[in-house]
C-alpha cells in the first residue's frame, strides 16, 4: 500500500496538472489547432511549469531553504509558491492568452487563484494539500469542457473522480496531510475553476 501511495503521489504531482489540463483540452476541443502549434504549446508549458520548478526546487534544497519535497513545514512553501505563481502568470500571459483560447486562459487563471489561496493559507500556518488542489481543479476543468463542447466523457470523468479518491487516500496514508488539509485542497482546486465557468462556459 505504501508503494502504491507513493506512486500515486508522484503521478499526480501538482506540477504536472497545468500540462495535463492543456493536453486534455487539445484532446477534447473540436477547435482546430495545428499539430505544430499543439507541440510548441505543450513543450513551452512543460518547460515553464515542470522543468523550471524542478530546477528551482533543487536550488532551494541546496541552499537549505527547503528540506524535502514534502515541505512539511508550511513556511518552506512560501518561496516555491511565489515561484509557481510567477511561472503560471507568465504562462497565462505569454502562452495561453485569452486571444488564443478562452478555455485554456481561464483554466490557468483558476490555477493562479488556487496557488494564491494556498499562499495565503501558508501565512496562517496551514498547508492545504496541493495534490488535492491539482487533481480537483483538473477534474472540474474537464467537467466544464464536457458541458461546453457537449461531449460524453463519462468514463474519463469517472477515472478522474476515482483519481481524486486515490490521491486523497494516498496523502492520508503517507501522513503527508490530515483530513482538513485534504478537504481544503479539494475546495481550493475546485472553487476557482467552478467560479470561472461563468466566463467561458
UniProtKB/TrEMBL annotation:
The lineage of its organism: Bacteria, Pseudomonadati, Bacteroidota, Flavobacteriia, Flavobacteriales. The chain crosses the membrane at residues 7-28, 40-60, 81-98, 104-124, 155-174, 181-200. Keywords: Membrane, Transmembrane, Transmembrane helix. It comes from the Bacteria. Coiled coil: none annotated. This is Transmembrane protein.
